[in-house]
Each structure stands twice: as C-alpha cells, then as structure tokens.
Specification:
With 155 residues, this protein is an all-alpha fold. Helix content is 75%, strand content 0%. The chain has one domain.
Length: 155
C-alpha cells in the first residue's frame, strides 16, 4: 500500500510541474507567441486561398471554345482565341508573383516560429503592404478580366 501512495504522490508532483509549465507557457509549441503565430499562419492561408481562386479563374477561360462551322467563318474568332490566351497569360503572371510572395512569407514564418526568435519580422504588416502594391502594380485584376469577358460575350 505504501508503494501505491508513493506512486500517487509522485504522479501528483509531476502533474503540478506540468500545470506550472502550462501557466508559464513553457510547454506551448510556440511559447508565449502562440496566438501571434496563428495570426501569421492565417496570412499564409489567405494567400494560398487567393492563389487557388486564381487557379479556378484560369480554368474557366477556354483555350479553344467549342464552335460551330458557321462561327468558323466569323473573322473575330481568331481575335477571341487571342484574347483568351492574353487573359490566361495575365492571370498566370499574377499567380507567379503571388507564388513568389507566398514563398517569401513561408520563409519568414519559418524564421518567426522558432522558439528563440526575437526579431521584428511579421507577415501581418507585409500582407497589407503587398496587397496594396499588387493592386497598384497590376493593371489587370481578376474583376476586370471577368467584366471584360462578360462585356465581350454580350456583344
């Protein structure tokens, strides 16, 4: 019976150590910065979703639409093919920039998530800055591409 009491006492002491470690954030994966780290991860997640939506948009633009023999005689068919390829090119270039930005963000996150990191890097600020820069730099946005496509289809 004494051995049992001794084991229970030792277990209680160990549980108390674990409780103290939780209270001082010693056993968290990212230490005291857990909440901040998940905000940083959310920035990466949003960038991934943005790239995924671009990919879906890219798939909605037909390379070679199905056409009837009567439509082949129309002179603007070649122009339509060219416009579709130009749209895809613009979206692909935008996706490449976003993929480069995502790669840099993941490298920054790797650095930020190290336990002994004490720097000032953050993805949260750079995400807002980068999105503004991309809006200024890119003349063709997804919304403009879709609107142009709808306007041309109604003509």
């Amino acid at each position: 019976m004494q051995a049992h009491d001794h084991v229970v006492k030792d277990l209680n002491e160990e549980f108390k150590k674990v409780d103290r470690a939780f209270e001082t954030n010693e056993v968290r994966v990212f230490g005291k910065n857990t909440g901040h780290i998940f905000k940083e991860l959310d920035v990466i997640r949003r960038k991934q979703l943005d790239i995924a939506s671009d990919h879906v948009l890219l798939d909605t633009i037909q390379d070679i639409p199905t056409i009837t023999p009567a439509q082949l005689k129309k002179p603007n068919q070649d122009n339509q093919f060219l416009r579709n390829f130009e749209k895809k090119e613009a979206i692909l270039k935008l996706m490449m920039k976003k993929l480069d930005d995502l790669t840099q963000s993941m490298d920054t996150f790797k650095k930020i998530s190290e336990l002994d990191y004490n720097g000032i890097d953050t993805l949260i600020q750079s995400d807002n800055e980068n999105s503004e820069e991309n809006d200024d730099d890119e003349q063709i946005s997804k919304r403009n591409i879709i609107q142009r496509q709808k306007q041309k289809e109604t003509k």
